[in-house]
Amino acid sequence: MAEARLDTGHWLQSVLARPRFELFPAPDVVALAETVPLEIPLTLACLPRTGVDRVVDVAEDLARRGHQVIPHVPARAIRSAHELAEAVGRLKAAAITDVFVVGGDRSEAAGPYPDAASLLEQMCADGDAFDRVGVACYPEHHPFLDDRRLTESLRAKQAYASYMVSQICFDGAQIARWLRRMRAAGIELPLYVGVPGVVDLAYLLRIALRVGVGNSLRFLRKNSGMLRMIRGGRSFRPDRLLWDLNRALAAEDQQVAGIHLNTFNRVGATERWRLEHASGAGR
What we know:
It contains twelve helices and ten strands. It is α/β, with parallel strands linked by helices. It has a single domain, classed as TIM Barrel, CATH 3.20.20. The protein is globular and about 50 Å long. Mean pLDDT is 84; it is low at 1-9.
């Protein structure tokens, strides 16, 4: 996807023409994916309880159906070099050319890869590089790593990666400040901004607090009457966040490639919202 310039009032329509949808590999994931147009890339998260084999199985199935699939490959879940080679071989046989390499949610590595950089290094040494490789980044604090180590890690991964995808952050100005720091530190990877889709707000808050985005949650609570919305059973909609981000980065070309919609498998509601705004009806 061509990089989207954040300098016009039509930015939201532009990035929603072809965002990325993240799904969990739940039993109904294929049916959910069929509600999304084939031109929308689908990323498949690897949850600790599902494992890498399940992600590869679903990725193969969706690729056969014509979807552009970007499976997560979590370093700490890979048990051996043999398992890595097998997973890579299956994905390549399915004509999958883009993967998202992450450390993973496990507190301890199941095998020889404690982080994404070590897994990427192994893939490169084996000649198993994909056409495109994404890595994770964190505009807010990581639950286990300080900012200095996060920057060092991102710099190490940059040697192998094509782009980065941010953890969910609810504060557009915070994303902009972080991105400027990364550019000053020599991190040049294009950014896909991680944004929640249309998701039940109480559920989203539980997830966000678990992954350590408390600073922007306080921002959101102060600016949107969040407690009232939770009591009313409301869903989060990312309109305000995207327009705040547009305003925060409007004066600069910061290599923002697009948005990465974390649907939490609320695919139907997120796709309806996308179509509404992609057509201009939501403006």
